[in-house]
Structure formats: structure tokens, C-alpha cells
């Protein structure tokens, strides 16, 4: 379990999947050098802001690239637009606290190197990860409340002596390595089969459907020039 075994991308994916506003959208993420890249499709551009808010409490994310997310240009009623925008607004506001709490933890000299993620839970937060001592555990809870959390869920926060050192080892690559997905921009004349052949050495349906699934593509024959595709490893 996190913090010893899950990559930044895996934790960010879980954070996005846990939010109702993103259910059924099939958003996918990958991470490299602190940059989280997101792909998929969303109903309108307000969702891009909500994506950034959703992962704001994940330790290790320095920036979020949503250029791979397609904003749908579909005909919808004014009522549906208003409802979607309200859902996104609530999701964005509810995730802002998680980012504030993470900032407070990382600003503290004793906790800044501890592997802790912060997720939103109503007007409170969920702390997940590990700290070196019970003192640091109590300090994390205190700082979360000082940052505005009315409730702090610590079921996923463990006291693990040596947590900082073990996490640092993983980050350096000697204990845990994360092979990032690659990205490809569709060129004129490209097909998914050709792209699969380029990256996997195999243009079979099984290979190109792996790319289609990662990018929430319903019809593998319909890709557009300039589209940014995640190539899962």
C-alpha cells in the first residue's frame, strides 16, 4: 500500500476516480518528473479546473498537464450545462482544502519529507501515508485542523519509523521504479494500428485497442490529427 508501492500516477488516478463528478468519463493519468499528464474527454472546460483541484493534495505533483483532455463539443441543454457547472464548482471547492493542508504539511520542517497524501472528505480531509513517529502523527493532525479541516481521517496514516528514509530511497529509484507511459501526437495519415506498431512492434487489434482503452476512444477508426494519445506501457 501507499506510501511504499504506489506511484504518483496511481495515487492521482485513485483521487480522480473517487470523485463523483468524473464518474464514467474514463480519465487516465501518467506522471513524469512531477508533471501529471491527463487524457480523456470531458463535457466542458470547467472540468479541467476540477481535475487540477482533485489531485492538488497528492504529494510529488508539481504541475498538471491537461492538454491531452478533449473538451466535447456536444449539444446540451442550458439546464444540463448549469447542473454540470454546479457539480464542477462543488468538486473544485471541496478539493481546495486538501491542497491547503498539503501545503501546511510541506511547510513544516518535521513533516516536509514524510510521504503523506491529502484527500478531501466533506469539510474534512483524509491523511494517507506514513510518518516516523507518534509525535509527527499528532503534529500532522494538528496542522490539518489549523489549515481549516473540521475533521481529520487518519485511518490511512501509519507510524512507520524510518518512513522518510524509505520513501527517499524509492524516489531515487533504488527501491521502487515507476516506468512512465509515453505520449504521442497523432500525425496526418496515422491509424491506431500504425501507432501500436510504432511503439509495440505489433499492430494487431489487441495492441491498438490497448491504446484506445487508455484514451477512452470508442471507435478506433476515429482519431484526429493533433490528438495527444497516452501509450500505456
Automatic annotation (TrEMBL):
All copies of domain LysM, residue ranges: 182-231
Pfam family for this entry, one: LysM
Ranges of residues in domain BON: 4-73, 93-161
Gene3D superfamilies in the record: 3.30.1340.30, LysM domain
Record protein name field: Peptidoglycan-binding lysin domain protein
Organism (species): Allomeiothermus silvanus (strain ATCC 700542 / DSM 9946 / NBRC 106475 / NCIMB 13440 / VI-R2)
Amino acid at each position: 500500500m501507499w506510501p511504499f508501492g504506489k506511484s504518483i500516477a496511481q495515487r492521482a488516478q485513485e483521487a480522480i476516480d473517487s470523485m463523483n463528478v468524473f464518474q464514467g468519463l474514463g480519465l487516465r493519468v501518467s506522471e513524469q518528473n512531477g508533471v501529471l499528464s491527463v487524457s480523456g474527454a470531458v463535457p466542458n472546460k470547467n472540468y479541467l479546473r476540477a481535475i487540477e483541484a482533485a489531485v492538488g493534495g497528492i504529494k510529488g505533483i508539481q504541475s498538471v498537464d491537461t492538454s491531452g483532455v478533449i473538451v466535447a463539443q456536444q449539444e446540451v441543454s442550458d439546464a444540463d450545462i448549469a447542473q454540470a457547472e454546479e457539480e464542477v464548482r462543488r468538486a473544485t471547492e471541496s478539493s481546495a482544502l486538501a491542497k491547503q493542508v498539503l501545503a501546511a504539511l510541506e511547510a513544516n520542517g518535521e513533516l516536509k519529507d514524510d510521504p503523506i497524501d491529502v484527500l478531501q472528505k466533506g469539510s474534512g480531509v483524509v491523511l494517507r501515508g506514513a510518518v516516523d513517529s507518534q509525535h509527527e502523527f499528532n503534529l500532522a493532525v494538528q496542522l490539518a485542523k489549523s489549515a481549516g479541516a473540521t475533521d481529520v481521517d487518519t485511518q490511512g496514516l501509519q507510524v512507520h519509523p524510518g518512513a522518510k528514509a524509505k520513501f527517499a530511497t524509492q524516489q531515487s529509484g533504488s527501491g521502487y521504479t515507476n516506468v512512465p507511459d509515453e505520449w504521442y501526437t497523432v500525425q496526418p495519415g496515422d491509424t491506431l494500428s500504425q501507432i501500436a506498431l510504432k511503439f509495440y512492434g505489433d499492430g494487431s487489434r489487441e495492441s491498438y485497442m490497448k491504446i484506445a482503452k487508455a484514451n477512452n476512444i470508442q471507435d478506433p477508426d476515429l482519431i484526429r490529427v493533433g490528438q495527444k494519445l497516452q501509450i500505456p506501457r
